[in-house]
Amino acid sequence: MKEKFKNLPLRSGVGIVVLNKDNKVFVAKRIDNPKNFWQMPQGGVDEGEDYLTAAFRELKEETSITNVELVSELDGFVTYNLPDRLLGIIWKGKFKGQIQKWFLMRYLGDDSEVNIQTSKPEFLDWKWVDLKEITDLVVDFKLHVYQEVQEKVQKILINRF
User: Fold this and answer.
1) How many angstroms separate the CA atoms of 138 and 147, rounded?
2) Is 0.85 surpassed by the pTM of this model?
3) Which of 6, 102, 121, 139 makes the best surface tag, with the fewest CB within 10 Å?
4) Grouped pLDDT means (10 residues each) for the chain, 161 residues
């Protein structure tokens, strides 16, 4: 990590694993990443906002999805640091990475309700994938996050569905 950024704080964030009726996971391709990387909805927590409220807000802002039910809050937090090439660029240079609280939600709507052409679009495309595929699609510096989330969601699915 670049020396001048090592003392920056981590940004508080949320991530949402959205499952459809077939237990497929929603992933989307970011506008600002020209390579073939996909991610689940995620974003920052606003001042005074709790994690679950932030998760519902981010999901709506990024995908227009509101027709969901909370299945589970995943245990603990997951942290990642930005790679050197993004330090000082992402989040206006205020943070060195993110500490995230993840949630598992069930999508109750149909695909026609998903709209990534929001007021501030973040995604070019979206699709449903098997849970086991999420680690094959994610950008390298978030791989450990997706591996941990994948493991926790798999345990919930085995125990509940």
Assistant:
1) 10
2) yes
3) 6
4) 79 97 96 87 96 98 97 97 85 91 97 94 96 96 97 92 60
